[in-house]
Amino acid sequence: MSIDITEAVKAIQDMALMIDPEEDYLTIVAAEEKFAASEAKRKKELEDAHANLKSLAKLLEAARSSSTRPKTVPSAEAHVATLNELDRFKLSLAKSISDAEEQLASREAELTSLKEEARGLEDYDPALDHEKELDGTALRLTIYKGLGFEPLVERDGSVSKMLIRSQSGEIHRVQLTGKKGESECRHLWQLAAS
């Protein structure tokens, strides 16, 4: 198949009418401008995305560091152990306080008892109590016995006889007449002095 040169030239000439280099140039310039604008827009978007990525990375790092337990703060296990230890200490302290309160109550009761006893001792007169305790009759009988006179008490409580121990050691038994005369008294003293 051979194409005739003339036909080819004619086809090119027909085509030349359709080809407008100025229009093509303007189209190419417009396309290049569109490409440049599109590239500038894409570059701006890329820079914005990169800046946004940097700020998000900083936020992520800040969130990561704030969510990470600082070295000064104990771990969860150490925190639980510390709480348990504090609870044990609290119970021990409560028991110590309870024991101290019991001891204080005991001491206060003892103090009250001692104050009452001290008040009683301040009001207490031993001579008066001793005097009350002493029976005058028993005291007189002891004095008489020391002097050598020992009355013999009958079942009915009356004294009708007297034992007299003399200074020489002899014991005399004397029947009392019941008269309170001077002669009977003198006779008893003479027996005691013999």
Automatic annotation (TrEMBL):
Entry-linked InterPro entries: Ndc80_Spc24
Gene Ontology terms describing biological process: cell division; chromosome segregation
UniProt keyword annotation of Cell cycle present: yes
CDD domains noted in UniProt: RWD_Spc24 (cd11565)
Coiled coil location: 97-124
UniProt keyword terms in alphabetical order: Cell cycle, Cell division, Centromere, Chromosome, Coiled coil, Kinetochore, Mitosis, Nucleus
A GO molecular function held by the record: microtubule binding
Subcellular location: Nucleus; Chromosome, Centromere, Kinetochore
One Pfam match: Spc24
UniProt GO cellular component terms: Ndc80 complex; nucleus
Domain of life: Eukaryota
Tagged with keyword Cell division: yes
Family statement: Belongs to the SPC24 family.
Quaternary context: Component of the NDC80 complex.
Function statement: Acts as a component of the essential kinetochore-associated NDC80 complex, which is required for chromosome segregation and spindle checkpoint activity.
Protein name per its UniProtKB record: Kinetochore protein Spc24
Native organism: Moniliophthora roreri (strain MCA 2997) (Cocoa frosty pod rot fungus)
